[in-house]
């Protein structure tokens, strides 16, 4: 695999930003490489997956390109008081890289996954744009983010983060709320969904709530709830399972 560290201008951000890409060295199939957009968690950047997991090796075994953008602390949102990260990653980035790297942009060969903040972002991308993604995976996803409202116990850092990203209003039942988005598209038109979370993860209740909502709506989800915490060992074990699960042509 070739590992590319790309720095390019993002019109929506009005600045330069970084994207890490692992790209097969074999000639692309007709139409271009199948592509997984792989999103990092809060506090990391686009290099995290290549530093902390074997994603390069796993992707090589499947002949898939992996695009890992830096998303700041944005929860992959056009921030209320910040930058337009959603517009960059959802709209501009695929357009920019598709032709540059010969990526196949058809729905059948385009997938998204992420961990924690990135798991939330992956499901948000897939549920807001089901016409673009054949499958989406959330690992330890912060799936209740949009429904969290500040309490007196919140530290100042978390309070400021929510203000920057979502503002002061309750984001429940908006386009930022993945539980709401789950019911917006007919089940037959949804991407395939994969959810994994450790049973000792502090986000497990949010994941169970998402699964419960899916059951109410009749949305099938491939799930893996097992012993584990919110840490890289869990995610490094899960991402090969995600790649095996993707509907790739073998």
TrEMBL record:
Pfam family, one: Esterase
Any one Gene Ontology molecular-function term assigned to this protein's record: hydrolase activity
Sorted UniProt keywords: Hydrolase
Superkingdom: Bacteria
Gene3D superfamilies from the UniProt entry: alpha/beta hydrolase
Protein's recorded name: S-formylglutathione hydrolase FrmB
